[in-house]
Amino acid sequence: MAEAHQAVAFQFTVTPEGVDVRLSREALKQIYLSGVASWKKRFARIKNSILTGVYPATPSSWLVVVMATVSSMYCRIDLSMGLVYHIRRYLPSCRYLSFQHRTLLSAALFSTGVWLSGILLCRQSLKLLLSYHGWMFEPHGKMSRSTRVWLALVKVMSGRKPMLYSFQTSLPKLPVPSVEATIRRFLESVHPLLEEEKYREMEVLAQAFQQHTAPRLQKYLLLKSWWATNYVSDWWEEYVYLRGRGPIMVNSNYYAMDFLYVTPSPLQAARAGNTVHSILLYRRQLDREQIPPVMALGIVPMCSYQMERMFNTTRIPGMESDTLQHLSDSKHLAVYHRGRFYKLWLYQGGKLLKPRDLELQFQRILDDPSPPQPGEEKLAALTAGERVPWAEARARFFSQGKNKASLDAIERAAFFLALDEEAQGYERGKEGSMDHYAKSLLHGRCYDRWFDKSFTLVVYKNGKVGTNTEHSWADAPIIGHLWEFTLGTDRFQLGYSEGGHCCGEPSTAMAPPQRLQWDIPEECRKVIDSSYRVAKALADDVDFHCFQFTNFGKGLVKQFKISPDAFIQISLQLAHFWDKGNFCLTYEASMTRLFREGRTETVRSCTRESTAFVRSMMDPARGQLERLQLFQAAAEKHQHMYRLAMTGAGIDRHLFCLYVVSRYLRVESPFLAQVLAEPWRLSTSQTPQQQIKMFDMEKNQDLVSSGGGFGPVADDGYGVSYIIAGENLITFHISSKFSSPETDSRRFGRNIRQAMLDIAGLFNVPANKVAN
Fold first, then answer.
1. Where in the sequence is the active site (predicted)?
2. How many other CB atoms are found less than 10 A from the CB of residue 352?
3. Phi/psi of residue 414, each to 5°?
4. Are 259 and 704 in contact (CB under 8 A)?
5. What whole-number distance in Å separates Cα of residue 384 and Cα of residue 446?
6. Range among 54-58, 73-77, 696-700, 749-753 with highest mean pLDDT value
7. Phi and psi at residue 355, in whole multiples of 5°?
8. For the chain, how big is the Rg over CA atoms in Å?
């Protein structure tokens, strides 16, 4: 076992002649290089902390201020108005500090104070500027003079070359809306969904809550908003995600797909090598804070907080609530293939393994003929089933010995990699290929993904890739940012040889991946089997349909002067009415990252205006012009609701936090109980596109993304994710449950397609533009 000897820096044996010590130079060299790399990373973090701490100033600007102050003193110009001399009087006099030295030190202290005051003034000014959101409510393509002045000031105050977290302290806090405004918007949102008598009952409950219960709850919420960085995010993470005791597979985790049409390499090990290396390059930039912050309009910064826990993070099960374990660094990867778990080191000599080296390591895993150990194959089913049995099993069977060491190797890994034995991906002419691909990423076989890891990278036999992401640590745009970088780096920077292998020559001296060892007793295997049965029943019930809408895309919709997102959301309302014959509470996720530590807010897409339009489409007596006017009014209303949600004036997060406060205070509220009990039978989300400009989409239309999706939120409802890719393609991911007689994902997909075509027809679009 040569690799075992390389892992030991020295060995000693006791002989009759004494102690014989043998040093391994190679091992000592690797230890030395690893230590150097670790210290470099520590110094880089200290440097980044300083640069971020003084932004928008720079350390060199401090020197400029000091030199200006000292120079003015030599020119007998007192810029400090006597403060330098006042400071000098309080400095101790000793033989080591002459009069001149004390004067220089006083000037430096004064300059430092001025410099720090300037930084605080700039930050507060920028925070005040970023609290203005009037620019979002201006008509598309038109910008008022006041907004132009505002943008110029933001640009001036933002400094140059910001790092990832440079703007964090300058972002405003999420404001707490007034109770009156939230209740008014809530009642407006449910009016089209309720019969008049039911609406009157809800109105009475809402008014009683507003007058009697809400004022006390609101005071506590305002107190939290003054004290905490964000009054929503910590409670949202804990109560919506970490306290859920049901399976997170399907119910919480979501997925992202590969390129739709292109597979850069058909070799599984090679694609895994390039993809893992690309992800690690992203992690290195993340650690160094070299990733530019995401900017709205290219100027307005968004919060980067969620990126902190992207890597080295695992959800740890608990009896009442889970926790998130996040490590500052991890140097290995956990890999699963054909029922076996491996630990793969990502560094050699303190440097990242090159793609060709990673390919060799993955090929070694693929070629390993050893069988799984007893209980090992379906071990990950524990992360797919109910949380309490997993927490109990973890405490009983994985708290010591080799089981603890192996579980630590998985939970402390940078992320998790699954090398699947099957082929997936879009195949032209093969019906259902995308449906199988989606289901494979969402739940797999229920035991070949570690659903607790921040994300699982899945690499298929034919070279296709995808991810399954745990939801509590971050929302979809965050993993989408990583995924765009990964696919772009793989395709345009790393590349492959003519044979499909990673570029370069492998280092055959590397020790092979380490097979994790388990001692799983029979009692634990029964728990694993029980979790697997729960997860399997859940996975088998998921009805998934994924399709490409190619009749037109955002290019045509923009010609209508309509937001593409509003166009799709109203199409979903029409499709749902055709599908079920009624309207339902509709959830569209929007982001609140314009605020510090902001996550999401709900846009209630089923509005009075959208229902009026849908009813007009069902009424043959309504003319085309009237329908068109109703559609435009519905689109404008949707955009207004979306902007309100983004600017902190949403409905649901405020009501959710009021409910949490009521539970802490043991205050019963029939209104809040009823509001939070209502199911979201249509849950929707748009997948973000091109957060990173890795390539020109128009020049590389074959590299469009397939997007991603999630499971149904309600047992009798639909989950719909869509990605607007390029000018002429929209991909939909639709989920529901077979067990519900009310839903059928394929039927709903047909309704969506027809709804979009019918709405486009209102604009007198020529037939050839909407034909297949």
1. 471
2. 18
3. -60, -45
4. yes
5. 6
6. 749-753
7. -55, -40
8. 29
Adjacent-strand bridge partners of 458: 418, 466
Identity (one letter) of the amino acid at 237? Answer: E
Q: Do 595 and 648 touch, CB atoms closer than 8 A?
A: yes
SS (H, E, C) 437-504: HHHHHHCCCCCCCCCCECEEEEECCCCCEEEEECCCCCCHHHHHHHHHHHHHHHHHHHCECCCCCECC
The residues facing 266 across adjacent strands are none
CB 545 within 8 A of CB 745: yes
The letter for the amino acid at 590 is: S
Give the DSSP letter of residue 46: H
Report the SS3 class of residue 585.
Answer: coil
d(CA 768, CA 772): 8
- Which amino acid is it at 675? V
**How does DSSP assign 402-417, residue by residue?**
HHHHHHHHHHTSS-EE
Show which residues are catalytic: 471
Residue 222 contacts by C-beta under 8 Å, 6 or more apart in sequence? 176
And the tokens for 622?
């309504």
CA distance 590 to 61: 39
End-to-end Cα, the chain, rounded Å: 62
State the pTM of this model: 0.90
Distance CA 362, CA 360 (A): 5
- 639, two tokens: 């955009």
- Using CA atoms, how far apart are residues 631 and 624, in angstroms rounded to an integer? 10
Predicted confidence band at 330 (pLDDT cuts at 50, 70, 90)? very high
- How far is it, in rounded angstroms, from Cα 479 to Cα 471? 10
Gap between the Cα atoms of 492 and 322, Å rounded: 40
Cα 746 from Cα 491, distance rounded (Å): 33
Would you say 390 and 531 are in contact if contact means Cβ atoms under 8 Å apart?
yes
The token pair that represents 416 in the structure block = 């998790």
Residue type, position 698, single letter: E
Residue 495 Cα distances to 224, 355, 498, angstroms:
50, 10, 10
Q: How many CB atoms lie within 10 A of CB 465?
A: 28
Q: Is residue 418 a contact partner of residue 334, using CB atoms and an 8 Å limit? A: no
- The residue type of 213 is T
Flag whether pLDDT at 762 surpasses 80.
yes
For 286-314, write each residue's pLDDT tens digit.
999 999 999 988 899 999 999 999 999 99
> What are the tokens at 281?
């390059």
Cβ neighbours around 195 below 10 Å, total:
8
pLDDT tens-digit map of 727-744:
889 999 999 999 999 999
Contact of 27 with 8, CB cutoff 8 Å: yes
